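Give me the fold.
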Amino acid sequence: MPSAGPQRPVQAHAALEHSASPRSLLPPTDHFPRLQISGKMLLLLLLLPVCWAVEVKRPRGVSLTNLHFYDESKPFTCLDSSATIPFDQVNDDYCDCKDGSDEPGTAACPNSSFHCTNTGYKPLYISSRWVNDGVCDCCDGTDEYNSGIVCENSCKEKGRKERETLQQMAEVTREGFRLKKILIEDWKKAREEKQQKLAELQAGKKSLEDQVEMLRMVKEEAEKLEKEAKDQHQKLWEEQQAASKAQQEQELATSAFQELDDDMDGVVSVAELQTHPELDTDGDGVLSEGEAQTLLGGDVQMDATAFHDRVWAAIRDKYQSEVLPTDWPVPSAPDLTELTEEQRLVPSPPTEEEEEEDEEEEPEEEEEEEEEEGSQVQGEQPKEAPPPLTPPKPASATEEDKMPPYDEQTQAFIDAAQEARNKFEEAERSLRDMEESIRNLEQEISFDFGPNGEFAYLYSQCYELTTNEYIYRLCPFKLVSQKPKLGGSPTNLGTWGSWAGPEHDKFSAMKYEQGTGCWQGPNRSTTVRLLCGKETVVTSTMEPSRCEYLMELMTPAACPEPPPEPPADGDHDEL
């Protein structure tokens, strides 16, 4: 009979390769809330202790699922069909099958597997190389039946702890699912209320639109009357301004005519006009007889009416008054240091006594006076009379140019128009608010909040998680952000994109996209995994890839329907 290999060398080799017992298939007890497990699987795990407790006679190292291959009443055929041997050669510590299936309970075949029954806990497959290697791999110690090592049977204790963990998980799932059903009912009621409110808003919108349109017409009519009243007020004021200016022009023309009419005969002659050289037209500084006659329209003299109508407009800008008007204030004792150079060169008109003295003075004295002319103060008379003063302008025309207050009737039209505008703007603002409320309600009602709306309660909430460096903020169905713990502006880690779970469990994850761009990188994005829990809280966040974040949110809405209560006692050793 061919041998697949020596016995103990294989076992010794297996002992050298073995380093530790297999790890448990379940996480530590303190982390059980993060384990996502379906109701069917949880039921299976809770019922496993009952199955594990059943003892069935079978060859060492053979599992119940493979028992039908090991029938003591007939020869054994290797599971890979490589050979058929008498059944008494099964577990004879000699490897006959290439797949090692004839030695499930010994270390003879390095490629075989030993099945730990582990009654009271959960069964386990280990490599046959670990059988009788001096290390207890099975909690019931069955793998060390012939090594001289006494293994304590810890299966019941492990099974007890395992059941406690599963029971706690089941309790969380049951309580979470109970809360989930409440959330579903709450959303049903809230959705009906929102639909009713939406219908009311949509019905009220038409009425408000009609009201806005009516108030718009009232406003436009009031504004029309307001404009007419304002325009009338403006027109009257402008007419008054024009009349006032015309009167002023008439007064100026009359004053100029009187000044020019030296002989007071009621007409201005060419000679009288020539006394004002500033009216010179050819730029030689002298108003010639021909120039004066031209200004008089070819006539040699002109009365006051014709002067106003035909001459005044032509000479107005050049004409300089000979005396200051009585209604204009004359400065008293001015300080020469404050006068402009132009003012210093303009003396006062001479008196009759001064003119007589000037006629009696010798030419030498006249020359001396001309030399000292620059030092004369205002009020002294030079020999030759300079150009007369230009009439000063009023100090300020602001008050004259300012339109007077509206009369009582015009103000009433203005107040009525303003009141109409206020009512219209208020109604228009109410309509905009109503339209926004309608859009928000339509969006919320049509939003996909899960199979039964269990996630709807997250819509208007935000949750935070503080780490050593950042404060993470999750607003479900809106956005995810990150802000430095010590202060600073928040960074957008993504706005709501879609549900992102696998096809069979679509609502187990959320995707937030198009966040703030990374430096020379993509836009930030966040995936939020939803875990079953009795409370709603962000439990963790990380950045597994650059600019891609992973966040975990515990919520009752993610809890599956729990299995029925398990049997009270799962420690029976036999059916």
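The two ends are 41 Å apart (CA to CA).
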